[in-house]
Amino acid sequence: MTHPTTVRRFGVALAALTLATTACTSSGGEAETQSNSAAPEDTAPAELVITPDDGTEQLEPNSPIQVTAENGVITDVQVDQVVPSEAGVEGGEAAEDPLEMTGRLSEDETEWTSDWALTPGAEVVVTATAANAAGEETELVHEFTTLPATPGMKLELASNFPTSGDTVGVGMPVVINFDLPVTNKEQVENSMEVTAEQDIDGAWNWVSDQMAVFRTEEYWEPYQNVTVDLHLAGVEASEGVYGARNYQIDFEVGRELIATQHVPDHEMEITIDGELERTIEVSNGMGTTRAYTTTTGTHVFMERYRHLTMDSATLGVPADSPGGYRVDVQYAIRTSNSGEFIHEADYNPNIGSANTSHGCTNMRSEDARWMFENILMGDILDTTGTDRQIEWNNGWGYWEKSWDEWLEGSVTGEPQTTDGSGTPGSVFGETE
User: Fold this and answer.
1) I want to staple 362 with a disulfide (CB 3.0 to 4.6 A). Which of 9, 106, 263, 283 is the partner?
2) Does the pLDDT value for residue 223 go beyond 90?
3) Buried b / exposed e across 398-414, counting CB within 10 Å, b at 16+?
């Protein structure tokens, strides 16, 4: 949602409390008297119009709020939303909304439109204030309710990576998994805003109807904070399915760690902030089959395990068949969803001299432990030298797409800059 001019910011209260009307007031009786005494007698008061109408019931949550002023300019808009407690829910107050409602104010400051949808099942109070040329204020309050989301048709997060508080590598994507399929992808995409301390262009892609991924044009700059605001409340994700609430994810990008390996060379180099940190002898896939070939391309380190059982049955090869295996390893870090890990393999005598693994990157225990203790989710592994390319949607292989290809995969087709300027389009769809 782009913000072309001044944006009025105001809090949205979500709590299971009795609705209390809050109103903006002038700075005080004395100041108001002074302003009035200086006003020309023929100065008309400002007039305000708020949409939706006062007293509206069961408003569709993905409806915008609009405020217009005549004979003056809009000086403040405040929106308060309260979701009453469900009857019989023990001690269950609704969680406070982590996000503010924002709006776009026209250049002449006479029109204001909300940026985001409204929370389903909420009691809403909109308080608008305008001032005429003499500084005299006019206030208008509208109260209305929004349509509640139908049980079983509430869009919520199933999981997300990273999570708040994580420190990640410079290649980290933002991965959002929804609990229900999304068909109105453009509205949902426009509800998800990413801001960072260092400005960079990024875009969302849909890996499936339930999975959206944000990737930047280039790697994140290291040592910065990133915030993901998911303004999902009230967005119609598909027919009759509305976002239940808003979410905020805060994470930190740490140092820049890049691991590189050319498979025929049997070694991996680790650089941190551009400086060589460690050289590790390895053994990669034997390459006798596609499944046993280490993939070339840009990998992003994913989850890690202190202990892990590697079982060829997960690839469709029984452990007791020719070429099958089942082995317990330590210090395993995933680099794809097709079964590739870097891990300890002291049982492999060919580390540093030959590629004899089943596709994983084998290391001696000391090196694997160092990797386990120093790698962050989102760090980069660049691999070359094999005839199998990692697919862009295999694990977090999203860097396999060029920026132009990635941007083409966005439903909006436009980049989102992380400078807080908003998302490319509207969350309201055809209702705006």
Assistant:
1) 283
2) yes
3) bbbbebeebbebbbbeb
Closest CA relative to residue 103, chosen from 64, 70, 132: 64
Residue whose pair of structure tokens reads 């977090």 in the numeric block: 396
Type of residue found at 58 = Q
Residue 120: CB atoms within 10 A of its CB come to: 23
Give this prediction's pTM: 0.86
pLDDT at 26: 32
User: What token pair was written down for 35?
Assistant: 């302003």
Q: Is the pLDDT of residue 3 over 50?
A: no
| 8 A C-beta contact, residue 184 and residue 238 | yes
Tokens of 431: 């209702």
pLDDT digits (tens, 9 = 90+) for 107-134: 999 999 999 999 999 999 999 999 999 9
Q: Which residues contact 100 (CB under 8 A, 6 or more apart)?
A: 9, 10, 11, 12
Task: Return the amino acid letter for 386.
Answer: T
Answer positive or negative: Cα dihedral of 189, 338, 372, 385. Answer: negative
Taking the C-alpha atoms of residue 179 and residue 158, their distance in angstroms, rounded to an integer, is 5
Q: Give the residue from 158, 161, 203 showing the smallest Cα distance to 300.
A: 161
